[in-house]
Write a structure and sequence with these properties.
Strand order of the largest sheet: 1-2-4-8-7
Largest sheet: 5 strands, antiparallel
Radius of gyration: 19 Å
Structural class: mainly beta
Helix content: under 10%
Oligomer: single chain
Shape: globular
CATH class of the largest domain: Mainly Beta
Length: 270
């Protein structure tokens, strides 16, 4: 069974309300996921594994799952605060973080803590390297520790995140996510918007207005029954996009905030 995260604002709360039957609990919770990194928090006797829904991390919005295991008993740790703290060390000597959706609850969902990181640039010998600091805290046992993991982030074949700077000097990062692999028909569609407040702070932006228009460039047509994304929570704008046939699609987005208007698009294959 492959766990899927629809959004930080919607699916995290939905997942937390689910209870697993005995049969479900026996299913491997990481089936269909890819292990990205692992390390041991020695003080807390905890192995920390990071799993992803795709085979490699990419520039854009990545769904991640933390799995915690007691290194003494080999039992899953299902109650802990988990925080993701990514950091890019650039070859120039500068450092910066990235937008993060931390796991929303101290309770694991079928042994996993779901969250996300919106990586804003790739790794590379001429660019820099990413590390992920994972902080864990068990209030009941009064323990706190962390691990620091090396990550590799690639540039996807088709852009999954745009950034732009406005005249007032504000920098924004816009990414998208589907709660499941997009298909012919109506699909749930999310846009995430963050801004750069400092090198360490990338808060969500909640007051954009988005209009959306899908287009099939090779065929010269669009599609009906689309719903432009509107803000739901934590910088997540949720809508629906209708793909009427397989092939190449372009999702046009018009973002507006006050007098500022920005047009951009994402290409993908269905």
């Amino acid at each position: 069974m492959k766990l899927r995260l629809i959004s930080s604002g919607i699916i995290l709360s939905t997942l937390l309300s689910l209870s697993c039957s005995d049969d479900e609990a026996q299913i491997n919770p990481t089936e269909g996921l890819t292990k990205i990194a692992e390390g041991v928090a020695t003080t807390a006797n905890t192995k920390v594994e990071i799993w992803a829904e795709e085979e490699e991390l990419f520039v854009g919005y990545n769904i991640l799952y933390a799995k915690l295991t007691n290194t003494t008993t080999d039992e899953s740790i299902n109650e802990s605060i988990v925080q993701f703290m990514p950091m890019m060390s650039m070859v120039s000597g500068m450092k910066h973080s990235a937008p993060v959706d931390n796991p929303a609850s101290e309770q694991a969902v079928n042994t996993l803590y779901p969250g996300a990181i919106n990586f804003i640039m790739p790794s590379g010998t001429d660019i820099g390297s990413w590390k992920l600091k994972v902080r864990i805290q068990n209030k009941a046992k009064n323990t706190e520790d962390f691990v620091e993991l090396d990550l590799n982030v690639v540039t996807p074949e088709k852009t999954r995140m745009h950034s732009f700077t406005t005249e007032d000097g504000m920098k924004y990062f816009v990414s998208y996510h589907f709660n499941k692999k997009p298909k012919v028909g109506v699909n749930d569609f999310e846009v995430m918007i963050h801004t750069k407040q400092s090198m360490d702070s990338f808060p969500p932006v909640t007051d954009f207005t988005i209009t959306m228009e899908p287009e099939m460039p090779s065929m010269g047509h669009g599609s009906p029954n689309n719903i432009s994304p509107i803000h739901k929570s934590n910088g997540h704008y949720v809508g629906k996009v209708n793909f009427t046939m397989t092939g190449d699609w372009r999702i046009h987005l018009n973002l507006s905030k006050g007098e500022m208007v920005k047009e951009l698009y994402f290409d993908l294959d269905i």
